Amino acid sequence: MSNPVEEFNAYRAKMNDKMMADNNKIVKRIFNLDTNAFAEGALSKQTKEVLGLGNSLVLRCDDCVKYHLEECYKLGMNKAEVVEAMSVSLLIGGTIVIPHLRRAYEYWEALEQNKS
Amino acid sequence: MSNPVEEFNAYRAKMNDKMMADNNKIVKRIFNLDTNAFAEGALSKQTKEVLGLGNSLVLRCDDCVKYHLEECYKLGMNKAEVVEAMSVSLLIGGTIVIPHLRRAYEYWEALEQNKS
Amino acid sequence: MSNPVEEFNAYRAKMNDKMMADNNKIVKRIFNLDTNAFAEGALSKQTKEVLGLGNSLVLRCDDCVKYHLEECYKLGMNKAEVVEAMSVSLLIGGTIVIPHLRRAYEYWEALEQNKS
Amino acid sequence: MSNPVEEFNAYRAKMNDKMMADNNKIVKRIFNLDTNAFAEGALSKQTKEVLGLGNSLVLRCDDCVKYHLEECYKLGMNKAEVVEAMSVSLLIGGTIVIPHLRRAYEYWEALEQNKS
Amino acid sequence: MSNPVEEFNAYRAKMNDKMMADNNKIVKRIFNLDTNAFAEGALSKQTKEVLGLGNSLVLRCDDCVKYHLEECYKLGMNKAEVVEAMSVSLLIGGTIVIPHLRRAYEYWEALEQNKS
Amino acid sequence: MSNPVEEFNAYRAKMNDKMMADNNKIVKRIFNLDTNAFAEGALSKQTKEVLGLGNSLVLRCDDCVKYHLEECYKLGMNKAEVVEAMSVSLLIGGTIVIPHLRRAYEYWEALEQNKS
């Protein structure tokens, strides 16, 4: 039986490995920066993940939304917090964001079911 | 002598008044939602303003960036916090964001000078 | 046998219900505004649906395009009218719109086959 | 005294002439298509201009918005119609569109003052 | 067994035929320009395909990326060249481009396997 | 008398200095990567600058377009080459790119006049 969370992460990991194996300096450094950028700093890790989620939502990138939803979930954020953040991004990004919000809700549900 | 903060706010207020005077229901409700969306809720007002700033930066809207920078400033955020948030958005949004980051730095400076 | 029109609408309705059940004020009001925005007003409902279709196409949102195509279809617009509107948006939005235009054509065909 | 409508059109005309003088085939044909695309066809010229205005607004191009506002104005559309179209695009495009809406209001006012 | 390259091209060809059959003048001319734009000229065909690939990547259009990857592949470009071009676009477009880069790597692999 | 090329570069240099002085790690590394990305590699520096120009044009960033136009100019590219590259990006990015193309033409002219 398919598990959307596992599927997403497996594909992501497999392709990231291939990209890293390639040794292109720019690609590797961007990936490295990506890890650094979301570490605790002047702002909390949670604030940064909310920011990453919101930025991904207004830029309408489903995979990026999934990734940050999962990080928010792992940090213990509850659904009300995540939905509130996404509602701000819906307002800023407009109704064009709605289809991505549907898929975000679906993935959040998958995260909750995956855990149980 | 021109003051960029006052100029920005004066133009914004003048045009917002004209839009509100127009009584278009959709426009008025969107403006009303805009106020609600950034109120304290499941997330703090500050987290939401950081989110608003980041969303505006990756969508590359200078006026929106200015508005949220000013809100962050009024909430007492320091430059390190604001720059860290913007650095995450620079990474997500790419180097295409750099010219907007320049103008954001310039406006933050104007906010600091305006106060003193 | 799968029916793309029914599938699209079933998923859309299911997820919209979940979002509405959530009682986030911003999300609910945006959905409510969405209904109001496309009602007959200073402009005809058809003009507004053409506008919704075009905006969705240049913003390259396949699900939004499908939704407005279906509304245009229900309002009795013919293919020549819909294609002409989409051709304007193709020109404004550029060839990057072409893959979305392919899927729009496919969905229009599904709408016509669904009816018969 | 500066006239924003005349200034905009003078710059636009001057630079378009330079681009046409350059004889790049793709550029010339795109410009030519641009004229054709907004001619009366299966849809009325007015519907197409509303579409052009809305597409320009959600893509957040101030100069394109100005151009289509002027075309709508010349076709005799009233402010209520134009504002209603823009309100739909504000909803679809989100609050990130607001600064562009401010400038659109300002230009519409300039169009009205230019005439009198 | 499914072949991603053949599937992509079959769908693309089928839908392009339907669009051409429709005789909308704007759509046909845009398609015609598309062919002309990538012909050898002041710049080499390869430079133009690299440009088409990069533009598609920062605009985040998977189908457009696939199309230009295939053209680059047919022109004999090697993986290092293609990856370097994509790394520049990743930097300009930001980490929001990463999911599209994953799918680009996957398609390049499919192109190599398809040949053998 | 104002010189658009000098003005642009002076502002750019001044603000870049302020950003670098700030010691945010992500910002500094992105700036550093930006320099690396356009160095000679598997692709020529010129091909990469054409790519940078095109990416900036379809993402509609005037300052980025100016920067890459100047780099192309310094590499000795002629106007026909630069215009051809921009015409491909106009086609991919659509007529929404036209106002940015006007400003690109204007800046190219300024580059030529600045030299003489």
TrEMBL record, chains A, B, C, D, E, F:
Supply one GO molecular-function term.
peroxiredoxin activity
Membrane-crossing ranges are none
Please state every residue range assigned to the domain named Carboxymuconolactone decarboxylase-like: 27-104
What Gene3D superfamilies does UniProt report for this protein, alphabetically? AhpD-like
Among the Pfam families in the record, one is: CMD
Q: Note the PANTHER family from the entry.
A: ALKYL HYDROPEROXIDE REDUCTASE AHPD, BLR3452 PROTEIN
Spell out the protein name for this chain: Alkyl hydroperoxide reductase AhpD
